[in-house]
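Kindly go through one protein, given below as sequence and tokens. The question is how this chain folds according to its tokens.

***
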Amino acid sequence: MIGSDGTVLLRARSLNKIFAGEGVVVHAVREVDLSLANGEFVAVTGPSGSGKSTLLHMLGGLEKPTSGEIWLEGKRVDGLSQARWAMLRRRHIGFVFQFFNLVSNMTVADNVELAALMGGASRKQATARRRELLGELGLAAKADAAPARLSGGEQQRVALARAMANRPALLLADEPTGNLDSAATTAVLGLLARAHADGQGILLVTHDLRVACTADRVISLFDGMVVDDAPMTIPHRPMLLPDVLKLRG
């Protein structure tokens, strides 16, 4: 685990993503600059279609930028092969997908333990980590269940446990509370708070301003552009759509 020493863990410079097909060009992300310090918790907010998930996918190596740079732990990574990105994700990056992406023919326990094993843990360590995470998230009784037998909210929590199983320096999370009730949301936020206190860097995409307000800093996107980037201190709040429209009008 990298300590919270204030140095830059993740940085993006002039990041762009353009999708083109059937005569339609969509500029999903436009000239985005952002940074995440070691141990910092940053939330990314914005309306649907503002580029939040696309940005997160580029930062985790799941989408290739059209242009721009991505730096992780001081090394430029946007030009890496998919194989190298996969290795980075196994060892240094935890990724919570919006649609879970659990392995359907494996149990909940195996989904979580596999991530720890691929990150270099021993079998004993992987089992202990799985028990710890599922216990904190209220899923200990579901360890032997198949993902298909879980609710959407339960699958979301398993996906979070899997992403955190290898104690990554960087956690990228796409709407990790989007399918959860208030009690499950509280459990997830508690786990994230403990990871944050332990020095883990967290970049979290969310529509929920209550979740965003738990972060150190909030970045607001609109039309693929950063329109606000400020510490989450009272009376600051994330810039909302009406605010952006006023600026643009």
User: Anything to note?
Assistant: Confidence is low (pLDDT under 50) at residues 1-5, 235-249. Residues 108 and 158 are 7 Å apart (CA to CA). The radius of gyration is 18 Å.
